[in-house]
Amino acid sequence: MDDDDLAARLKAFEGRRATVAGRGKDPVNLPMIRHWCEAMGDTNPAYTGPDAIAPPTMLQAWTMGGLSGHTSRTRAYDDLLALLDEAGCTSVVATDCEQEYPRPLRPGDEITFDTVIESVSARKTTRLGTGYFVTTRTDIRAGGELAGTHRFRILKYAPRKDAPARGPEEPRPAERRPRAVVNRDNAGFWEGVARHELLIQRCTGCRALRFPWLPGCHACGSPDWDTVRALGDGTVFSYVVLHHPPFPAFDPPYAVGLIELAEGVRIVSNVIGVPYDEVRIGMPVRLEFRRYDEELVLPVFRAAGEAA
Question: What domains are defined for the chain?
Fold first, then answer.
């Protein structure tokens, strides 16, 4: 099929329903809320006690079908993905999600939901390959009242073919590191990094520190905050060693650490200054800023006592 025919067939899926009258397999309940909060390290008192609410970001958890799935699912979404497979877009990556929370969910709420294929983009060329962005919208209700909206977007694409081999007189240019998504909630952090400052948010209500940056306090809910500059001392709280997948902007294997700063918050960053297989939990590290190209500076952590 030609590109115009494919585009028309893809557009015909917009507005089709992927789930009709779906039901949550469990009502909103305190055990699931507790497990979620423990996994996230979220100690907000709003999620415990007789007047508990569910963390808003749990929204999608109440609609998941588990291994057995949902009987309310239609064939529309599967047919759309099959059409993209037929067109050579056989790979998929989740790109982002957006959520809205009109009202809190509380233990005992029975969940119903409907999902619609909201949009299929025109053909796009990305670093991964050429394909189409598919967005679904799930409206989640409690007692018939809209409680949340979850938009989920994937890229279904044909993987990019390897570039032709270059001769010795044509060295392969270095790939640039991926850029962070800068928005109104985290712009101040990146402005600080550009000045070689690691800034931590501090609630002006309860004085709790938080990282990564958020629009409101996880402890008291206040939207007001200022910042403190991290001293730069930390320890490796946990870490992983990345071997795969290979990506030209990186040089595996390398260590990525969850660094606990002296101020008590944690940040994910590279551990440098020692071989990847010598990184250990509890290892003291020290903040430094590394320039990767003419635009990008990132905070990294060097093993304490190791020379730059």
Answer: 3-159 (3.10.129.10), 182-229 (no CATH), 232-308 (2.40.50.840)
Q: Is 68 helix (H, G, I), strand (E, B) or coil?
A: helix
Consecutive H or E run containing 33: helix 30-40
pLDDT tens per residue across all 308 residues of the chain: 677 899 999 999 999 999 999 999 999 999 999 999 998 888 899 999 999 999 999 999 999 988 888 888 899 999 999 999 999 999 999 999 999 999 999 999 999 999 999 999 999 998 888 999 999 999 999 999 999 999 999 999 998 875 444 445 445 456 788 888 898 899 999 999 999 999 999 999 999 999 999 999 988 989 999 999 999 999 999 999 988 767 778 888 899 999 999 999 999 999 999 999 999 999 999 999 999 888 899 999 999 876 66
Handedness of CA 79, 82, 86, 90 (dihedral sign): positive
Following DSSP, what letter does each residue of 198-209 receive, concatenated?
A: -EEEEETTT--E
